[in-house]
Design a protein that fits this description.
The complex is a heterodimer of chains A (255) and B (357). In chain A, 32% of the residues lie in helices and 29% in strands. By secondary structure, chain A is of the alpha/beta class. Chain A has a single domain, classed as P-loop containing nucleotide triphosphate hydrolases (Rossmann fold). In chain A, the strands form 3 sheets. In chain A, strands 6-9-10-3-11-12 form a 6-stranded mixed beta sheet, with helices on both faces. A 4-stranded antiparallel beta sheet of chain A has the order 2-1-4-5, covered by helices on one side. In chain A, a hairpin with a 2-residue loop joins strand 1 and strand 2. In chain A, helix 5 runs parallel beside helix 6. Chain A is globular and about 55 Å long. By secondary structure, chain B is an alpha/beta fold. In chain B, 18% of the residues lie in helices and 44% in strands. In chain B, the strands form 3 sheets. In chain B, strands 3, 5, 7, 8, 10, 12, 14, 16 and 18 form a 9-stranded mixed beta sheet that branches. An 8-stranded parallel beta sheet of chain B has the order 4-6-9-11-13-15-17-19, covered by helices on one side. Chain B has a two-stranded antiparallel ribbon with strand order 1-2. In chain B, a hairpin with a 2-residue loop joins strand 7 and strand 8. The C terminus of chain B is likely disordered. The chains are: A alpha/beta (255), B alpha/beta (357). At the A-B interface, helix 2, strand 7, helix 3 and helix 4 of A face helix 2, helix 3 and helix 5 of B. The structure holds adenosine-5'-triphosphate (ATP) and magnesium ion. Adenosine-5'-triphosphate binds next to strand 2 and helix 1 of chain A.
Chain lengths: 255, 357
């Protein structure tokens, strides 16, 4: 068994007036690749944001342990520096902050990534090329006016730059054209290759998984993890949908 | 400055064309400035033509700068010439851009000769027909008081773009009037400002749209922190006869402290039917989802806020066309952001490789 990087135990969370996640148990080992699937509105993104530490959600019970430390009460920036990264399903536009200033600032915050500005520029340039992005985007405001696909690439760029221990990819593949999809797939591969980072991939499509070796698949329905199984569970879902899980008894199917 | 220097008050300057109820107290600013008698000295004055150029801070400031500055500077860009080298406008400067020419004019506060606590610039630009004129204005000193009055008249088809960076400490009073006199003349104005601690910013923007089918696009955006006080007056004046013209003004302010005073007075004057005038404003703190996005990537709340200030300096440094202005912006960045970040700004922009910094 791999060293356990993320351990979520008995987690219940939601907004102030609405419980969304119920009794979540989820463990991801260092360097592992996990897939999280489930119908729209199941709570997948919420789980991502709760693991990241978004104060919009409250944890009523349970705990989140990361890299041996209980981070349940830690602020998001602390978790980020500890090595958790959440790629947003819908990246936020931040007017008034040029992408370059932003990327440089988030990199310089991490002692292990500090580098001279010249090296940094070269590195960002390389990554932009790798992701098939025009480098003129660097002087534009963060995510402002970028197309959906371009925003996802900017998330990928940050993933490659920050090299987190755990990357939660929330539908990074959705809304991408064929070329962009293969660019992003290669980016994820590069991330795996470069720093052996763990992945929790939230997706509705199997395409993105083709180039990845999936260790574990989880299914979420109505805020609960109702099934867990090997990579083959994905094909099962692909063929039969989520209906099979939509009864409480179905727990554990696919094992 | 020496104790012997006289000081005078420039009362109620930097006024907009249409005044509001006085209790809002956003109509003007009164400045105390040094005054030296130059009786008997003979100066070079600008050609009379420049007297017709309306300047943003009004005639009192024009008179004062004229009386204080040593010789006026006159620069002419000949017809059809594309002048690559920027024109540095100091003290009292008049620039004549002849038909079809292109020029870049840089306005950076330079301290008035004998009074280092106040810097002043009076810049008048006549852009004839079919010209392209780029104006870059920087106020970024760590000094006390800055007075910038600028006036531009634009002939038919003239393309004027103005980028202002008001990042200085102390009091910045700046007025800009652009008269789009010729048909199809166009103005793009971007104004970026930073106010913090006890800084005072008093900005007056006036666009006179006289020609037909003129376009004005005015964008102000800034960050206010500490006890900063800002007043912005922005007027788009669609004058009778300017049919088919469009003017738009948009301000967005980021307010980082409860002690900030932020006043904005947008006015659209309209004496013509077939025109469009637009004004928009957004005043606020950083939206929670924006803060969260930045925190998710490792920045504390304070660091997220500082990023907005860093961004202003990044932009100003990219735009700075001369070593002198880069130097000034950098010194200010060091005071605001600390030496580490300031050095990083320079290095990051590749300016460290440019020898002249
Ligand atoms: N901040 C919030 N305020 C109110 N309701 C919320 C909030 N965040 C999530 N929800 C609700 O919680 C449920 C789960 O949403 P979530 O976005 O986590 O679903 P999802 O599994 O990611 O769906 P999709 O596949 O469509 O992205 C939805 O009903 C959603 O409306
Ligand atoms: Mg989602």
């Amino acid at each position: 068994m791999q060293h356990q990087l993320l351990r979520v135990q008995g987690l219940c969370a939601g907004t102030e007036d609405k419980p969304i996640l119920h009794n979540i148990d989820l463990t991801v080992g260092a360097g592992e690749t996990h897939v999280l699937m489930g119908p729209n509105g199941a709570g997948k993104s919420t789980l991502g944001h709760v693991i990241m530490g978004d104060p919009a959600y409250m944890v009523s019970t349970g705990s989140i342990e990361f890299d041996g430390t209980d981070v349940t009460d830690e602020a998001a920036d602390k978790r980020s520096l500890a090595g958790i990264f959440l790629s947003y399903q819908a990246p936020v536009e931040v007017p008034g902050v040029p992408l370059y200033s932003y990327l440089r600032t988030i990199t310089q915050k991490r002692p292990e990534l500090k580098m001279t500005a010249r090296k940094f520029r070269a590195r960002v340039g390389e990554m932009a090329e790798q992701l098939d992005m025009d480098s003129s985007f660097l002087t534009r405001e963060l995510n402002v006016g970028f197309s959906g696909g371009e925003k996802k690439k900017i998330e990928m760029l940050q993933l490659l730059l920050l090299k987190p221990k755990l990357a939660i990819m929330d539908e990074t593949d959705s809304g991408l054209d064929v070329d962009a999809l293969s660019v992003v797939s290669r980016g994820i591969e590069a991330y795996r290759a470069e720093c052996d980072g763990a992945l929790l991939v939230i997706t509705h499509n199997t395409r993105i998984l083709e180039r990845l070796t999936v260790d574990r698949t989880h299914v979420m329905v109505q805020g609960r993890l109702v099934a867990e199984g090997p990579a083959s569970l994905i094909d099962d879902i692909d063929a039969h949908g989520f209906e099979q899980f939509e009864h409480p008894q179905a727990n554990g199917s696919g094992e | 400055m020496s104790v012997n220097d006289e000081r005078i008050a420039l009362e109620r300057v930097n006024t907009p064309p249409a005044q509001t109820w006085n209790y809002l107290r956003t109509n003007d600013i009164t400045l105390t400035v040094p005054a030296h008698s130059r009786k008997g000295d003979v100066f070079f004055a600008l050609p009379r033509l420049f007297e017709q150029v309306e300047c943003g801070m009004g005639p009192k400031v024009t008179e004062w700068v004229e009386s204080q500055a040593a010789d006026a500077h006159y620069v002419e860009v000949r017809a059809g010439v594309q002048r690559a080298e920027p024109i540095i406008a100091e003290d009292d400067t008049g620039v004549m851009v002849r038909a079809g020419a292109e020029a870049t004019i840089v306005i950076g506060a330079s301290p008035t000769e004998e009074a280092l606590d106040t810097s002043a610039s009076l810049v008048r630009i006549i852009a004839e027909r079919d010209t392209t004129v780029h104006v870059l204005e920087f106020v970024a000193e760590n000094a006390d008081q800055h007075v910038h009055s600028v006036g531009i008249t634009a002939g038919a088809n003239a393309r004027i773009d103005v980028r202002q960076f008001f990042l200085a400490a102390g009091t910045t009073a700046a007025g800009l009037t652009v008269a789009l006199d010729g048909d199809h003349a166009r103005l793009d104005l971007s104004c970026r400002y930073l106010g913090r601690e006890h800084d005072v910013l008093d900005i007056n923007h006036v666009v006179r749209q006289r020609g037909r089918q003129t376009r004005a696009n005015v964008r102000e955006s800034g960050v206010l922190d500490g006890h900063a006080r800002k007043a912005l007056r922005a007027t788009i004046d669609l004058i009778h006869g300017s049919s088919g013209s469009e003017g738009a003004e948009l301000e967005s302010v980021l307010v980082l402290s409860d002690d900030v005073t932020n006043k904005t007075m947008p006015v659209i004057l309209c004496d013509e039917d077939d025109v469009a005038g637009n004004h928009g404003a957004s005043i606020g703190s950083i939206a929670p989802e924006q803060i969260q996005y930045l925190r998710d990537r490792g920045l504390s709340l304070e660091e997220a806020e500082a990023l907005y200030q860093r961004a202003l300096f990044d932009e100003a440094l990219i735009a700075a066309p001369t070593a002198g202005i880069r130097h000034t912006v950098l010194a200010r960045a060091t005071a605001v952001l600390g030496a580490d970040v300031a050095n990083d700004l320079v290095a990051g922009l590749g300016l460290d490789e440019a020898k002249e910094v």
